[in-house]
Structure formats: C-alpha cells, structure tokens
C-alpha cells in the first residue's frame, strides 16, 4: 500500500451541482426500487 498514489480531487461546488443535475434522469429510473424515501434521497 505504500506504493499507491492517492488521487487528488479538485471538484468545485459547481462541479458537484452539475453532477447532481446529470444524475436526475438516473434517479427517476432507479428511485422506484427504493421503498423508503430516505433511501431515494
């Protein structure tokens, strides 16, 4: 494990917001498989 390189994340808040928007269509499809509202969110 000493030889492994840990990547540096350079996500900005805007990147995270863009990702959340991009995942909405997948959430619409897969969200029905989670019975509890806590799991869906």
What would you say this structure looks like, in words?
54% of the residues lie in helices and 0% in strands. It is mostly helical and 41 residues long. It has one domain. The model has no long low-confidence stretch (mean pLDDT 84).
Distance between the termini: 35 Å
β-sheet strand percentage: under 5%
Share in helix: 40-55%
Strands, total number: 0
Structural class: mainly alpha
SS summary, helix count: 2
The overall number of domains is 1
Order of helices and strands: HH
Main β sheet profile: none
Keywords:
mainly alpha, 2 helices, single chain
Topology:
Blueprint: H1 13-30, H2 37-40
Question: What is the compact description of this entry?
Answer:
With about 40 residues, this protein is mostly helical. About 55% of the residues lie in helices and about 0% in strands. The relative contact order is 0.09.
